[in-house]
Amino acid sequence: MQEDATELQVANMKRLLRGSLDHGGVAAFYGAVQSYDVTAAARQLTQPTLLVHRRECIVHPLRASQQLAATVEQAQLRVVGGRGSGPWEGNVEEAATLIEGFLDTVDAAEPIRNAAPSTFRTLLFTDLESSTALTQSLGDAKAQEILRGHNDAVRAALQTHGGEEVKHTGDGIFAAFGSAVSAVEASLQIQRDLAGAEVRVRIGLNAGEPIAEDGDYFGSAVQLAARVCDRAEPGQVLVSNVVKELCSGKLFQFADQGEATLKGFPEPVRLFVVGEGE
Hints:
Rossmann fold, 3 domains, 11 strands
C-alpha cells in the first residue's frame, strides 16, 4: 500500500512539473541549481536548523547531507525512511512528525548551549609531544613558554577558520567547528605555524553529533576524536574516515593509514593522515 501511494505521489509530481515548465525552463532551473553554492549560504545560518535526509534518496547521497550539516552552525541531521528526495515523497508522516517536534523544541528551548542539543560538529584535539618529559628537562618556566606558543598558534587558527575553543586540556586544546573543511584547514595552519617549534604537536579530528552542555561537548564523537589524537604521530594531522568523506572534493591529500582499533571502541576505525593539497 505504501509503495502504491509513493508511486502515485511521484506520478502527480511529474504531471505538475510537466504542466509548469517547458524544456527551456527546466534547463535554466537545473543550471541555476548546479551553479548555486549552497555551502556558502549555509554558513550564514546561525539559528537551529533541521536537515532531513531520506535513507533511500534517489537524488542526493547521505554524504552530501552530512557535508551540508557540517557547514551549518546549529544543524541537526536526521535520517528518515523511504525513497525519493522531497518531503512529499515516501513516509510523509514520519518526516512531518520530526519537523513538528523540532519546531516545538526550538520554540520552547532555552539558548542552545544550555539546552543540551545534539549538533553536528567536527571535533579537534591537539596534544603536545612528551609534555611531562619536557617539563622535567627544561623546567616549568621554559615548558610553559612552549605551551604558550602552542596555545597562541591554535587560537590564531581557530579565529581564522571559525573554530570554537571548548577547553584547555593541560597538554593541548579541544575545539569544535561547524565545518569539517574549516577544521582541517585550521589543523594544517597549526602544523605550519609550529613546524619550527622546539616541540611538535599531534592533532586528531572526528565528526559527529556530540551533546552540548554547559559550554562543553560530550559523547562518543568527542571520545573518538581524542583517541584519534592519541594515535597521531607528532607533527601529524590524523582524521577519521567521516572527516575525510566530509572533505570530499577539496584540495587536501589523504594518506590511508588503514583500520585501527581504538581503546573503548569495538569496531575498527579507518584513519587518514592529512597533507596540503597540490
